[in-house]
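Handoff note, outgoing to incoming analyst
You'll be picking up this chain. Sequence as last confirmed:
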Amino acid sequence: MEKLKAFFRKKDVVISAHRYGIEALSAMAQGLFCTLLVGTILNTLGTQFHIGFLEEVLVTVGKEEAAVHYRMGDLASAMVGPAMAAAIGYALKAPPMVLFSLIPVGFATNALGGAGGPLAVLFVAIFASECGKLVSKETKVDLLVTPITTILAGVGLAYLVAAPIGKAAIALGQIIMWATEQEPFLMGIIVSVVVGVALTLPISSAAICQSLGLVGLAGGAAVAGCSAQMVGFAVMSFRENRWGGLVSQGIGTSMLQMSNIIRNPRIWIPPTLASAITGPIATCLFKLQMNGAAVSSGMGTCGLVGQIGVYTGWVNDVASGTKAAITAFDWLGLILISFVLPAVLSVFFCEIMRKKGWIKDGDLTL
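Most recent structure output, in case you need it:
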């Protein structure tokens, strides 16, 4: 047993919740962002501003009725499976031969997993990467053994589990979305708070939302929760961090506050209370829905991706005829939920806590 443990250490195979649940999941979100999310943004820009090279079909696969046309954004989005798998391998410190072999593994897993493919990619890519690492450079024919082992392990496992994992993820997402439709007030609070907290933790709220296919009212609540965390921390820490902190947290990530949260967990209360308020306002009053890419639900104000996702959903709904037009009330709701209310509520709660001595000057300094 000790020899096996030593071999695992030598190969840097560390079986832990931190490595798989935080490092791998966070890297997977980066793969998602650089392909699916960026592709969606490029398509939206091309369509809305009539940018020729973004609207132009670059690649056509198939013939006649079966032909699939790809614009630049479509090509980026189509690579989401390989990008996620390669990102996970990178996070797990896979050697080059393993890392490159994860590209077909990611493609196969995402395709077999269907709409819930991202969650399947997380499990399968971790397994394939670790298998590849264990055999890497252990034979004289490493050029063959390592990629064959990685691909066989990954695609083989994907064939067995990707579809069930994908269906389970989507089923869970559908339950959450159904529950939000039935109980928009209560679920607005739950979804907003849980996804918002996940965004600030060193895990990926974006990957979670994409894996569950979280859209509709539940997606709108998720946007509210994530925005409350980012804008809340950015504004309530302005006296400590000034403009640099406002930008880095407000359109960057509230995760920057994690070390301060560990030192004083009470600083997390104001933005979390704000998310508990903005969530049900989003679901009950403004009926804010995320009908764009599900990954946008977990991005909040990071690069304004959450807001762009909501807008993309509006555009798609108008084009499909399910929405008559984008109204002033829609814009009012998006602005209030994403920016105004998180800022006002977080500062309000923070000032109360400062007066009580629960939050002191310097507690929020980055």
